[in-house]
Amino acid sequence: MAVKPAAAEVLIRNSLAYIVKIWIQKLYKIDFRVFNMVTQQEIDRVIEWCEKVKAERNRIYVIERNPFRDEIDWMRRFILIEIDRPRDSASKNDLVYDSTIRQLWQFMNGDWRRVEPDIRIG
Fold first, then answer.
1. Residues 26 and 60 in one domain
2. What is the pTM of this model?
3. What are the pLDDT digits (tens) for 24-67?
4. What secondary structure does DSSP assign to 71-83, as a single string?
């Protein structure tokens, strides 16, 4: 069975990425499984902050810099947090908070999805 050159290149690239990941994991003793795990406590903390900012500003919607970028791993990719801004007009790169249902939203794979806690098995 012959492997096409493009498929072989993808296999090699993925293999090298895996080898580098294992090497970094052993060298620095990093457990990559714990990165980007969303917990309910972190979600509640962000929602609490959004409610506080909304009460302070007293506006229809608020756009604020993300103060959790350095503290919470999964929040690093969001530069801004948009509070009560309609998802239709919100930036797809930002986190959106909807205070009517007390829910955080992120744009992923072409659609707005709720931020929900990850379930860790094992």
1. no
2. 0.69
3. 767 776 655 555 678 899 999 999 999 999 999 999 999 999 99
4. T-GGGTT-SEEEE
